[in-house]
Design brief:
By secondary structure, the protein is α/β, with parallel strands linked by helices. It is built from 16 helices and 17 strands. It has four domains: 144 residues, Alpha-D-Glucose-1,6-Bisphosphate, subunit A, domain 3 (Alpha-D-Glucose-1,6-Bisphosphate, Chain A, domain 3), CATH 3.40.120; 104 residues, Alpha-D-Glucose-1,6-Bisphosphate, Chain A, domain 3 (3-Layer(aba) Sandwich), CATH 3.40.120.10; 108 residues, 3-Layer(aba) Sandwich (Alpha-D-Glucose-1,6-Bisphosphate, Chain A, domain 3); 72 residues, TATA-Binding Protein (2-Layer Sandwich), CATH 3.30.310.50. The strands form four sheets. It has a five-stranded mixed beta sheet, sandwiched between helices. It has a five-stranded mixed beta sheet with strand order 7-6-8-9-10, sandwiched between helices. Strand 16 and strand 17 form a beta hairpin.
Length: 451
Amino acid sequence: MTLFGTDGIRDVFGQSPITEIDFFHLGKSFAIWIKKQSKHYPVTIARDSRSSGIQLSKALIYGIKSESIDTHFLDIAPTGACALFASSQQNFSAVITASHNPSDYNGLKFFNENGLKLSRNQEEEIDEIFSKLKSRPADFNLKNSNEISIKKNSSEKISNYYKNLIEKYPLSKKFLRNNQLCFDGANGSVSDFIPLIIGISSSHSFATGIAPDGDNINKDCGATNTGIIKKLIQNFNLNAGISFDGDGDRIIIIDELGRELSGEHLLFLLILDAINNKRKVNSVVGSIMTNKSFENKLNEIQINLIRTDVGDRNIAYEMLNYDAEFGGEPSGHIINKNIGFTGDGLSNFIVFAHIFEKLNLTPKNLFDSLTLFPQIQINVNISRKLPVENIPLIDNAIKYVEKELGNNGRCIVRFSGTEPVIRIMVEACSEKLALEYANFIKEKILKSELV
């Protein structure tokens, strides 16, 4: 059984491995693995706002405690903040979340004592332990799991983490006072902490999507559904909008004209600040999805773009390999080594706000400073995964598009790590051309044995 996808474990609640008994075994497996790695055992645990989270939290804690390892339960807290806070205590951490997926999904992400997501090899080791435990007679007792007492203490500890970060980047408060913003918390993990940020700065900003009920996470809101926040920007003549996803590890900034800043724009902001501070930036890490135009811009200022596979975990490890200060994905997963090697949307906002104020920039200015090639992304539902290079119909279509684009675009076709879809991405000098080529490849896929 392969438990882990591109970003941890994820599926519909009630289906294996997103069940209480599986989470008991996952907790036990993680604990067994930790004892092989370190003498410092405690595990910090958080969850997002899904209604299934509390049951799964109890089962996970039950499994960890069965191996005599202490746990600290933060309850609802952003994924990145949990990992970063835990690493400050040299604790391992686990977050129960399905990120941007609908409320009927849930999942699990593991982090080491340095706040890094576990490597692929480490996940495979846990997978192997889990498989062995599953093959034995179950020692899981649902009644005992439900009776697990969990003290909820995220508010104070995570609030203090954000307060300390604001003190480190004090101009963020001035930016908030000088601009009227709207925040969208996706009815998820950042819901309790956005009002804290607004309150500390005495800002006139306001928030939507901060009333989680267990079932409304990501529903018509958040980083993957920015329509509401764009309307609010227009209706109230706001300076910008700030949107997060369900577990708060990504950030989307929308300027006063309703345009979404990509991860490339946000990385460029960090680079501008480094240049302003006369700090040399040799390399920046992106993914295979990072816009070619951004790479061209970096080449102009003698910065190398290092590309890796999709996933912020891959970004983080490649940053370590190249000693890079910044890395991120177009989707808004941004990792700043000065904060830690895990992305946290609200932490990133505090840093971005500080830099905007320091450099006298606005989100609109930033958007206009970096022109990206139009990029079209299409998902095609599939029934099975086969190497596309072994399917001539698809492989020839991709090679044709790549030849036609030359140096004026790119074409990426890859399987999703979390869903039964194949993703097509085409960049070109015009949106019309990108769409034409993307649909050309889509037609070939629909005629292939993948569907």
